[in-house]
Amino acid sequence: MNQEVKVVFGQYTAQRAITARGQLNADAAKALNDAIAYDPIFVIEGVQIEDIEFSKDYIRSVEARMQAEVAVQQRQQELAQESIKAEIAVTQATGRANSIRAEAQAQADATTLRGNAEASAIKAKGDALAANPNLVALIQAERWNGVLPTTLVPGSAVPFLNVH
User: Fold this and answer.
1) For the chain, what percent of residues have pLDDT higher than 70?
2) Distances (CA, A) of 14 to 1, 59, 63
3) CA–CA separation, 68 vs 63, rounded Å?
4) Cβ-proximal residues to 159 (8 Å cutoff; 6+ apart), any chain
5) Which end of the chain is more exposed for a tag (fewer CB within 10 A), N or C?
6) Whole-structure pTM over 0.90, yes or no?
7) Residue whose C-alpha is closest to residue 62's, from 8, 13, 11
């Protein structure tokens, strides 16, 4: 009967024997029942495998494999974190670039608007001067403080005085 249990156990990996202990017990009970089916005196109602011992070398190899798996998982988490950090950096850089682009566009638009306004003002002044040539003399007279210049270039006219 010991042989039947060994055969059943041989069909399991060490990890599966531990994680699927209920199935291992059921398979062992079935193998034992099949082995004694010719003798109706015995009835096996259940099998409970409680203590599974492995060699020290096997335990060390399992521990080493588990440590390697933990290291791989840790590295995967680190890579995922780095990927997230990279995505954040790209998003921030894109935001800064969009902000700079929008500010430059706003400045260009403001320059265009100022230029158009100045051009309109110059055109309006030109149209006003063309319609009324005496407008310049009027503005000069309005701004004059009543004091004549103290020095004059010989042969030049006195400013603001037109003698006809």
Assistant:
1) 95
2) 21, 10, 13
3) 9
4) 148, 149
5) C
6) no
7) 13
Residue 25 exposure: Cα atoms within 13 Å on the Cβ side? 14
> What is the model's pLDDT at position 123?
95
- Tokens at residue 46, please? 């259940």
Structure tokens that stand for 40 in this block: 């109706």
Across 119-157, b (16+ Cβ under 10 Å) vs e yields eeeeeeeeeeeeeeeeeeeeeeeeeeeeeeeeeeeeeee
DSSP designation for 152: -
Q: Which residues of 31-53 are buried (b: 16+ CB within 10 A; e: fewer)?
A: bbeebeeeeeeeeeeebeeeeee
Segment 96-143, tens digit of pLDDT: 999 999 999 999 999 999 999 999 999 998 898 888 888 777 888 888
Distance, CA of 69 to CA of 97 (rounded, Å): 42
Question: What is the model's pLDDT at position 48?
Answer: 84
**φ/ψ (deg, to 5) at 163:** -105, 120
